[in-house]
Amino acid sequence: MKLPRLRGLAAAVLLFFAAACPVPADEPAVNPTGSWKVTAISTNSQVHPAAQTLKLKLAGGALTGSLTYNSSPIVNGKARISVLPITEAKFQGDVISFNFTHPPAAGDGPNATYRYQGKISGDTIKGTYVMEWMGQSRTKDWIAKRINE
After folding, report:
1. Sign of the alpha-carbon torsion through 109, 88, 58, 30
2. CA distance 49 to 97
3. What is the pLDDT of residue 15?
4. Which domains does the chain have, with CATH numbers?
5. Which of 73, 54, 71, 65 is nearest to 147 (CA)?
C-alpha cells in the first residue's frame, strides 16, 4: 500500500518547511522592540507637528519604553528635550497600547495624560491617541515609522 509512503513524504515536507521558516516559540511574529519616529496626524496644514521618538522593549512578555520629545519652544537654536517613561504598556498580537503623562510646558498646572493605541504592520504603527488635560479630551491619529539603528 502507498499510504505509509505518503505519510512519510508529508512528514518530510512539513519538517522541511518548519526548518526553513523557524519562529522561536518565545518570540512574537511582530516585535515592537526598537526606536520609532512618532508623528501626530493633523488636518491643519499650517501646523508642523514635532516628531517624537518612541523607544520600546519587549522582554518576557512585558513591554517597557520611553517617549522623547521637544518640551519647549526653540530658543537660541536649542530646545529642551524631555524623556518620559511609558506606563500601562500592553502588546498582544499586533496591537499596542501605552500611556504617558507630562507636566505643563511652562508654569504650574495639572499634568496632561496621553493614551495611545495602535496596530503594527511591518515597520509602521498607526493608531489614535487621546489627550486629557484640565477636564478636556482630544483624540487624534498618529503614525510611527521604525528607525533603523
Report:
1. negative
2. 21
3. 46
4. 26-147 (2.40.128.30)
5. 54
119-145 in b/e form (b: 16+ CB < 10 A) is ebeeeebebebeeeeeeeeeeeebebe
β-pairing verdict for 52-59 and 34-41: antiparallel
Q: 31: which 3 cell numbers? A: 516585535
Tens digit of each residue's pLDDT (9 = 90 or more) over 71-128:
666 667 777 788 999 999 999 999 999 999 987 766 677 888 999 999 999 999 999 9
Cα–Cα nearest to 29, from 92, 75, 82: 92
- pTM of this prediction? 0.72
Chain-centroid distance, C-alpha 65: 9
